[in-house]
Amino acid sequence: MNNLCVAHRGFSSIAPENTMAAFLLAMEQPEVQWMELDVQLSRDGVPVVIHDFTLNRTTNGKGLVRETDWSDLQQLDAGSWKGKAYKGERVPALIEVLDRCCGKVRLNIELKTQGNMYPGLPAAVIHEVRKRHMQHDVVITSFEPTALVEVKKLAPEFKTGLIIDARPGDLAAVLRQMNCSFLSIGYTNVDKSLMREMRNEGIQVMAWTVDDKTIMKRLAAIDPELMLCTNRPDVWEQAFQETSSRFFRP
C-alpha cells in the first residue's frame, strides 16, 4: 500500500478542521505527505481557511464569511466546538498555513466558491502561493469550473483539479477542456476503469473522504497511484501496516 495519504482539513478527526492545530498535528504524522484545506475570502479580501460559507458551525460567530472582515474573523473561537482543549483556536489566514507548510508538506487548496461569489479568490490564492515559490507544491481544486479556468488563465503553471462526486461519461473530455491534470472524486465512484482512463489522460486522482480501514485497503488494491484523502491518518497508518505485514511476513 503505497497510496499517498492526504489529511482532510488537517487531522480533523481529532483537532478542529481547518485550524493550525489540525494542520500541525497532521504534519507530525510521518505518513501525511499532503493536506487538503478550504479557502474563501474575508470581506476585505484576505484569503482565509474555512470550509462552510457561514461561520455558525465551526466558530462562535454567525453570518457569512464573505461579509466578515479579517480583523473580526481573528477574534472568533474556531476550536471550542471540537473540545475544551482547542478553545481559542482561530480561523487561519492562508498565509499562515503556507508559511508553516512550505518545504514540509504539499497542499490541495480547494477554492470554496459558487458561481461568482468570490471573483478575486483565484488571483488572491495564486499571489500568496507564488510569493512563497510553492507553485509546484500545491494543486488548486474546486467544484466550480469557472474558478479553475480562471486559475489556468492567470497562472498556467499551476496544477488544477475538478472536484466531483459522480462519474459522468464525458469526464475525460471535460477535464481536457478545462486543462485539469488532477481529479478529486468521491471514493464510491472509483474503480479500475476510472483509474485506467485517467492514467491514459495523465490525470492524477484523489479519492475522498475515506475513514474506514477496509475501504482504504480496497481502494489501494485498485491502484497504487490513487491518493487517499482522510480525516483519519491514523487509520491510514493501520491499513498500511497491516498490508505491509501481509507481504513481508517472515
UniProtKB/TrEMBL annotation:
One of its GO terms (biological process) is lipid metabolic process. InterPro entries: GP_PDE_dom, PLC-like_Pdiesterase_TIM-brl. Pfam families: GDPD. Residues 3-240 form the GP-PDE domain. One of its GO terms (molecular function) is phosphoric diester hydrolase activity. This is Glycerophosphodiester phosphodiesterase.
